[in-house]
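Quick one:
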Amino acid sequence: MNNTTNTRLIKSIISSACASLILAACGGGGGGDTAPDSSLVSASSGAIVSPSSHAGSNETLASEAAPTETAATETTEAKAEPATEEAAPGPFGQNANDYRMTFSDEFENGFNTSVWNDTTWDKPAPETVNYAVEDGSLKMWPARDPQGNFVARVIDTDGKFYQTYGYYEIEAKLPVGKGTWPAFWLYNHDEPGNFRPEIDIMEAYAGGGPASGWSDANFHPTAYAPTIWTGAPGVLGGTKMVMDLGDLSAGYHKYALKWEPGKQTYYFDGKEVYSVNLEMPRRMYLMLDLLYGSASGQPDDSTPTGKNNSFDVKYVRVWQFK
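Output:
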C-alpha cells in the first residue's frame, strides 16, 4: 500500500473536518464519561485530542495497581465531520463501505503527544530515549541505559483513545536479534483488582531461534502469534502461532484484527490466519511496544542496537463498523 497516497487521503479528510473531543478518563488516575459517537481521530493531522488522566499498561498480564472504575464498554473518539471529497482508506482486504475510520496516525508529523503516551500507567518513562517518529514511521529500537540494561519501550493511547469492537491495523517491519519482543495489542485496566482483558494482535520472538519456529538461524523473525487473555488472571482465551512467513524484518507487513461481538478474526497482509468465538465487550486502548524476554530469551551483546534495528511502524489505523 502506498503510504504517500494514504497520507494524501487522510489530509484530504481532515482538511474539512473540525474536531472536538470529550474524553473519558481511564483507570489508574480517575474515571469519567466517554465521548459521543464520532467519525475520525487523525493523530497526524493536528486534530485536537486532549489527554485525561495519564495512564498506561504494564508489560506483564497482571498489575499490582488497582485503578478506579469507569464505563468499560464505550468508545472514546474525537468528533469530526465526514469527508466531503475522498473516502478514508478502508481496512486492507475488507469492504471499505462497511467501516468508518475512527483513528489514524500515518507518522508524518512527529510524535503526537495528544494521542500517544511514551510510558505506562504504572511505570515512569525510561530516561534513555529509544524511539522516534521520522521518515514517515514510528521507530522503537533496542538500546541500553547507562547501567547497560536494555531499555523497554511502550507507546499507548491510554487516557486518550479507546474503542470497543471494530477493525485494527498496522503496517510494520520487525526487529531482529536475541531477546527482541515487538507487539501490537489492545488492553484495558478500567476495573479495580486484577481484571485485565488483553488482545495481542501481533507478538514476535526473533530470539527463539530456528528450533522454536519463531525465527531463522540468524534470529530474524519468521513467525508471530495473536493471543487473547480474557481478563481473569491467567485465563487464556486463545492463541495461534502463525509460521513460515519469511523474514518479517525484511519488509513491511500488515497485522490486523476484526473484533466483533462474540468473535475475533486475525489477518496477515489481508489473509485470515486465525479466528476464535469469544465475547470481550470492554473498551480497550492501543499499544505498541518493544520489550525483551518470553519466547525470545534475553538480549545480549549479539543483539543489534540502534535505529537500524527498529520495530518500524508505518501507520496505525482503526475503524468502527457502520
